[in-house]
Specification:
By secondary structure, the protein is mainly alpha-helical. It has one domain (2-133). Helix content is 79%, strand content 0%. The protein has 6 helices and no strands. Helix 2 runs antiparallel to helix 3 and helix 3 runs antiparallel to helix 6. The protein is elongated. The two termini are 22 Å apart.
Length: 134
């Protein structure tokens, strides 16, 4: 059951809800959850959530495209977004800004495999480095 709780917390933390998966992860480790289990369930929940964010953004594209491209600033943002989006994903592991970046990746319809490789691996590495610090 603690693994499921960690999974749900990590999933919710990667949405716009105010959860701290890092705190839950550290608590799980401090309560003697095996490191592999904690790493697996936190990473799995967090990566599934960023996939959810991406898909949400992907399906919002059709509703936002016309409005976005109707203004000069929107056009500029859209062009810069496509130009620098993969670099911006390098920040997707950070609290506060990382989760909206995964949504924007979907809106920009970035290639899913590259999105998953960049953002997903960084999410997993974040938990791995936390295990080294605990």
């Amino acid at each position: 059951m603690p693994e499921f709780t960690l999974f749900v917390t990590a999933f919710l933390a990667a949405t716009i809800l105010p959860f701290s998966s890092e705190a839950a992860f550290v608590i799980a480790l401090k309560n003697d959850m095996p490191t592999f289990n904690a790493l697996f369930f936190a990473s799995f929940g967090n990566v599934l959530a960023i996939i959810f964010n991406y898909l949400l953004g992907y399906f919002l594209y059709t509703k936002t495209k016309d409005k976005l491209l109707s203004s000069k600033l929107g056009n500029f943002s859209y062009e810069k977004g496509h130009k620098y989006a993969y670099y911006a994903l390098l920040l997707s592991w950070l609290p506060l800004i990382g989760d909206p970046l995964t949504l924007v990746a979907g809106v920009l319809r970035l290639k899913f495999i590259w999105f998953l490789l960049i953002a997903g691996v960084l999410r997993i590495l974040r938990y791995y480095f936390l295990t080294l610090m605990v």
